[in-house]
């Protein structure tokens, strides 16, 4: 069995960590104090800056809304491709059945 999945940190906790970093505390100090990794805190600060339209140097990327939309669109694309594949197989099956395997109808 794999590693148990930890639930994400609550939004309020993330906001507090971001505020503390912006107030001058280091992610490493917060990491020791609150038990989450310094890299996680650094990522939260970078994402918050992107969401506010002020990305940190070297940390350009998608806003949270853009990320959510990308995930939604990828999921939708996967569904549409699956439906297309099913329709292609059904079309081929019906075409093969019509061409040679159908029985003539009796008019008696």
Explain how this protein is built:
The protein is mostly helical and 108 residues long. It has 2 domains: 8-61, Arc Repressor Mutant, subunit A (Orthogonal Bundle); 63-96. It is built from 4 helices and no strands. It has helices at 11-22, 27-34, 38-51, 64-101. Helix 1 (11-22) packs across helix 3 and helix 2 packs across helix 3 (38-51). The mean pLDDT is 89.
Which topology of the largest domain does CATH recognise? Answer: Arc Repressor Mutant, subunit A
SS class: mainly alpha
Radius of gyration, whole Å: 27 Å
Outline, from the CA principal axes? elongated
Q: Please report which band the strand proportion falls in: under 5%, 5-15%, 15-25%, 25-35%, 35-45% or over 45%.
A: under 5%
Largest sheet: none
Tell me the count of domains: 2
Quickly give the CATH architecture of the largest domain: Orthogonal Bundle
Overall average pLDDT: 89
Uncertain stretches of 5 or more adjacent residues: none
CATH class of the largest domain: Mainly Alpha
Order of helices and strands: HHHH
Instruction: Give the strand tally.
Output: 0
How many helices?
4
Considering DSSP H and I runs of 4 or more, what fraction of the residues is helical?
A: 55-70%
How far from one another are the termini?
Answer: 65 Å
Short description:
The chain is mainly α and 108 residues long. Helices cover 67% and strands 0% of the residues. It has helices at 11-22, 27-34, 38-51, 64-101.
SSE layout:
Layout (H helix, E strand, L loop, with lengths): L10 H12 L4 H8 L3 H14 L12 H38 L7
Helix pairs in contact: 1-3, 2-3
């Amino acid at each position: 069995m794999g590693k148990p999945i930890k639930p994400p940190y609550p939004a309020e906790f993330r906001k507090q960590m971001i505020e503390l970093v912006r107030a001058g505390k280091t992610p490493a100090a917060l990491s020791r104090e609150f038990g989450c990794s310094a890299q996680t805190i650094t990522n939260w600060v970078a994402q918050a800056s992107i969401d506010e339209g002020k990305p940190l140097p070297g940390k350009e990327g998608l806003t949270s809304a853009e990320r959510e939309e990308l995930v939604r669109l990828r999921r939708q694309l996967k569904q549409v491709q699956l439906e297309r594949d099913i329709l292609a197989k059904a079309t081929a099956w019906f075409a093969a059945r019509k061409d040679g395997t159908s029985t003539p109808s009796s008019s008696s």
